[in-house]
Design goal:
The structure holds 2 protein chains of 2 kinds. By secondary structure, chain A is an alpha/beta fold. Chain A has helices at about 50-55, 65-70, 85-90, 110-120, 120-135, 150-165, 185-190, 220-240, 270-275, 305-310, 330-345, 350-370, 375-385, 390-405, 410-415, and strands spanning about 30, 100, 140-145, 170-175, 215-220, 250-255, 260-265, 285, 295, 320-325. Chain A folds into 3 domains: about 30-240, Rossmann fold (3-Layer(aba) Sandwich); about 270-325, no CATH class; about 330-425, NADH-ubiquinone oxidoreductase 51kDa subunit, iron-sulphur binding domain (de novo design (two linked rop proteins), Up-down Bundle), CATH 1.20.1440. Chain B is of the alpha+beta class. Classes of the chains: A alpha/beta, B alpha+beta.
């Protein structure tokens, strides 16, 4: 992951069906630009000296102060669920707490955590140190993607710098399996426990009863970076960017699974038009990643990077994954390919998921290519939702449901044997 | 707001692979103070015993996995306990209503 110009090799979308097999092995490195807060120092390099020179030492407030700060700016987790960090922190603030930084980033089209921990490792590690100090623990687990060894090398280097600097935290590294559901909270706890890195049923929130039964503050890497930044600059400093209702910045991954992927840090309230090209603003947009929702181009002008605005548009920002449909692609065919991929990402443990998702993929294929019934697709969406240890089936159903409701013209066209896609995209 | 309440409320905007949702049931038909059934999905192997013992609450999908609909009302509470005990893989749990403060 480097700051670099757009790559040279490329294949035209028409010759490549959107079968999404691998991500980091095959995907291009995203272009990352310096940002206003978390990514402010990436041009200085990832070293500790440069980081300290720019930001100073990590700020170490008490748990009560940190909870109050998180509440004041309404900080939300950045793994996708948007859960209030203040509540999580307050719940985990008990004896023998454990801190878990989740940088596994199982979401195939998300690249922001990898970019953040590669280019600004100490921004994340300072945040983890801040949280660990607040919770009175020195045990911090870092969960890294196993398919990106360069990230681990970079983190190991960063940790050596911190240990040499006298930091007394026991950092423990873990390698998450390269699959979609491996980053889910319970799957991460399984990994920490030395078991298979797959979701299990959660009977208690991990903040109440997590790793080894201890209260566990498990959050996304970006969330820790925000907590560290917030502790350092205070609520007013944090609110220097963003809007009154949503202070601060957020990381976005643009085109994370396609050509010219990009990671950007933008203040909340930034118009989507500022992060997408004029052409992309005329295309359907998949917001929130493969578990996200489609937004029709007509809704895009005036839409901002904002959890609240995007929720009002019937979509979710999730972990900040923004996927404009490439020109010449059909959103129905694209969705069909995604559902096929998602069905293959089932861990194969929960009956409704390992039976339901392949059936759903088949029903969607039937609907999109052979004029099959809507009803069967809707029925299967209802059958898989809320019936698994994790919400992989729910997310898949949500993607399909948004396709069903957002693209009536495209369905009409398909019914008449047409397709707005070009080339082999239109063929079953 | 407790973490349990917050988790229930955040359910609708959850990004699924990272779901932290733990509420026993977000079924709208469940009223406060009622027991609910929860399935441990990875443990469930579709024996279908629960649906035989408690057809009032549990039906089976086309693959034989349980569909839990609604709360466990007092009149079927004993049968629900029996269903929990009878599950060959211990994949069913009866969740008590949250205690009132």
């Amino acid at each position: 992951m480097t700051l670099r110009a757009t790559p040279v090799t490329r294949v035209t979308p028409q010759t490549t069906a959107p079968r999404l097999v691998a991500r980091r092995e095959q995907g291009q490195d995203p272009v990352v630009s310096p940002g206003p807060a978390l990514l402010a120092g990436i041009a200085d390099g990832p070293g500790l000296a440069a980081h300290r020179g720019r930001f100073g030492p990590a700020s170490l407030p008490s748990a009560d102060v940190l909870v109050e700060l998180a509440r004041a700016v309404d900080l939300r987790g950045r793994g996708g669920a948007g859960f209030p960090s203040a509540i999580k922190l307050a719940s985990a603030n008990r004896r023998k707490a454990v801190v878990v930084v989740n940088a596994s980033e199982g979401e195939p089209a998300s690249r922001k955590d990898a970019a953040l921990i590669s280019l600004a490792p100490h921004v994340v590690l300072d945040g983890a140190a801040t949280v660990a100090h607040a919770l009175g623990t020195c045990e911090v687990h870092l969960v890294l993607p196993s398919d990106a060894p360069a990230i681990r090398t970079g983190i190991e280097r960063a940790l050596r710098e911190r240990v040499a600097g006298g930091e007394r935290i026991r950092w423990r590294l873990h390698d998450a399996a390269p699959r979609f559901v491996a980053g889910q909270a319970q799957a991460v706890l399984q990994l920490l426990a030395g078991k298979e890195n797959l979701p299990v049923t959660a009977w208690q929130p991990e903040a109440v009863r997590g790793h080894k039964g201890r209260p566990t503050l498990l959050s996304n890497a970006e969330t820790f970076a925000h907590l560290g930044h917030l502790a350092r600059v205070g609520a007013d400093g944090y609110a220097a960017y963003g809007t009154a209702r949503e202070p601060g910045t957020t990381l976005l991954t643009l085109r994370g699974d396609g050509w010219d992927p990009e990671v950007r840090e933008v203040p909340f309230g930034t118009p989507l038009a500022d992060v997408l090209s004029a052409d992309e603003m005329t295309q359907p947009l998949l917001l929130g990643g493969y578990h996200g929702t489609w937004v029709r181009p007509v809704r895009l002008p005036g839409l901002n990077v904002s959890r609240i605005d995007i929720a009002a548009a019937g979509a979710t920002l999730g972990a900040g994954v923004i996927l404009p449909l490439s020109p010449g692609w059909c959103p129905l065919v694209r969705t069909e390919a995604l559902v096929d991929y998602l069905a293959g990402q089932s861990a194969g443990r929960c009956g409704p998921c390992y039976n339901g998702l392949p059936a759903l993929a088949e029903a969607v294929r039937d609907l999109v290519h052979r004029g099959g019934p809507f009803g069967r697709v809707e029925e299967l969406c209802g059958l898989v939702a809320r019936r698994g240890a994790c919400a992989h089936p729910d997310g898949t159903a949500r993607l399909v449901a948004s396709m069903l409701t957002r693209f009536p013209e495209e369905f009409d066209l398909h019914e008449r044997g047409g397709c707005r896609g070009v080339g082999d995209m239109a063929v079953a | 707001m407790s973490i349990h309440e917050a988790l229930r409320k955040s359910g609708d905007q959850v990004s699924p692979a990272r779901d932290d949702r733990v509420s026993p049931a977000r079924d709208d038909s469940v009223r406060k103070g009622e027991h609910t059934l929860r399935v441990d999905w990875p443990a469930c192997k579709a024996h279908g015993v629960c649906a035989e013992i408690l057809p009032e609450v549990v039906s089976l999908d086309q693959w034989g996995f349980p569909i839990v609909s609604g709360a466990v009302t007092d009149d079927v509470l004993e049968m629900a306990r029996a269903a929990v005990k009878a599950c060959p893989t211990l994949a069913l749990r009866l969740i008590q209503p949250p205690r009132r403060p």
